[in-house]
């Protein structure tokens, strides 16, 4: 077993940018949310085999 991991899943559709956030975010593009979630879901599925020997102990959104 390789150990525990934590995940950070960025959802870039914010009402305003937090002062501490260095990640990209977009206001006013809520029409893109479903496309983003679909792509994110696909990415998680595609990478799940890479991490099958790990235990996810935390998820941050």
Topology, element by element:
Elements: E1 3-8, H1 33-47, E2 54-60
Parallel strand pairs: 1-2
Brief digest:
The protein is an alpha+beta fold and 61 residues long. The protein is built from one helix and two strands. The protein has one domain (3-51).
Q: How would you describe what is shown here?
A:
By secondary structure, the chain is of the alpha+beta class. It has one helix and two strands, in the order E-H-E. A two-stranded parallel sheet has the order 1-2. Strand 1, helix 1 and strand 2 form a beta-alpha-beta unit.
Helix content: 10-25%
Structural class: alpha+beta
Number of helices: 1
Cα(first) to Cα(last) distance is 26 Å
Number of domains: 1
Assess the beta-strand content as a share of residues: 15-25%
Widest sheet, order of strands: 1-2
Q: What's the rounded overall pLDDT mean? A: 88
**Poorly predicted ranges (pLDDT <50, ≥5 residues)?**
none
Strand/helix succession:
EHE
């Amino acid at each position: 077993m390789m150990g525990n991991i934590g995940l950070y899943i960025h959802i870039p559709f914010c009402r305003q940018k937090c002062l501490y956030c260095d990640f990209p975010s977009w206001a006013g593009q809520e029409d893109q949310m479903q496309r983003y979630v679909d792509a994110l879901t696909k990415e998680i599925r595609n990478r799940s085999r890479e991490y099958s020997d790990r235990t996810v102990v935390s998820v941050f959104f």
